[in-house]
C-alpha cells in the first residue's frame, strides 16, 4: 500500500494537491488532516478533522507514507505573531518529527522565497527557522518548496497579494536570468511540482525555488 498524508488540504496549494493525489492511481490511500471537514468524497480518501495542538493522533497513519505539509497563514488571519508561528513553524515541525519517528518515506513542505532564519523580516525569519529546524531532523527525504508570489483563487481576500497578482502579467516577462526565481507561480504548479518530486522518490534534502518549481510543473505536464 502506498499512502499519501496531506495536511492543509483546504488551502490554496493543498486543495490543488488533493485533486492531483486523487487522480494519481499510484497512491492506494490518501489521508487528509485538517481543522474542518472537506466537501470532497472519494473511495481512496480518508478525511479526518483534528486539533493541531494534539497532532499525535495522526501518527498511526504516517509509517511508510509520503507526507505533504501545506499549512500556512498570514499574521492578519492568524491574529498575532504567536499564532502565525504556531501554524507556519510549530505545527509543520511537529508533523515532521512525528513523520520521522513513525518511519515516513518522504516529507514535503512549503515555505517561501526569502526564507532566512536571520532575516530582519518576521515572516521570512519564521520560514527560515522552519527550514533550519527541519534540516536538523535528518529526515530520509526532505523536499522544501519556496514559491514566490502564489497565484490562484483564494477563499480569503488578501489585498496586497491581489494587487501584486494584477501586476504579475506585466512584470513576469521582465524577470529573466538570475531574476527568474522572483517570478510568481501558480499554486496549481506548486502542487504539480510536489507530486512530481514525490514520484521521483529521491532521498536527501532538496530545495526548490519558484523557477525550479515551474520547471518541475512543466515536466510533470509533459509526462502526463
Task: Explain how this protein is built.
The protein has helices at residues 12-23, 75-78, 81-102, 122-135, 159-171, 187-200, 210-223; strands at 3-7, 29-34, 45-49, 65-69, 106-110, 141-146, 150-151, 185-186, 204-209. The radius of gyration is 17 Å and the shape is globular. It is α/β, with parallel strands linked by helices. It has a seven-stranded parallel beta sheet with strand order 3-2-1-4-5-6-9, with helices on both faces. Strands 7-8 form a two-stranded parallel ribbon.
* Fourth-tier CATH superfamily name: NAD(P)-binding Rossmann-like Domain
Mean pLDDT: 88
* DSSP E strands, number: 9
Rg value: 17 Å
User: What about the largest sheet?
Assistant: 7 strands, parallel
For this structure, the quaternary state is single chain
Shape: globular
How far is the first residue's CA from the last residue's CA? 22 Å
What structural class results from the helix and strand content? alpha/beta
Q: Can you tell me the number of structural domains?
A: 1
Which ranges are low-confidence, i.e. pLDDT below 50, for 5 or more consecutive residues?
none
CATH fold topology:
Rossmann fold
The string of secondary-structure elements, in order, is EHEEEHHEHEEHEHEH
Helical segment count: 7
Side by side, the strands of the main sheet go 3-2-1-4-5-6-9
By CATH reckoning, the class would read Alpha Beta
CATH architecture: 3-Layer(aba) Sandwich
Approximate helicity band = 40-55%
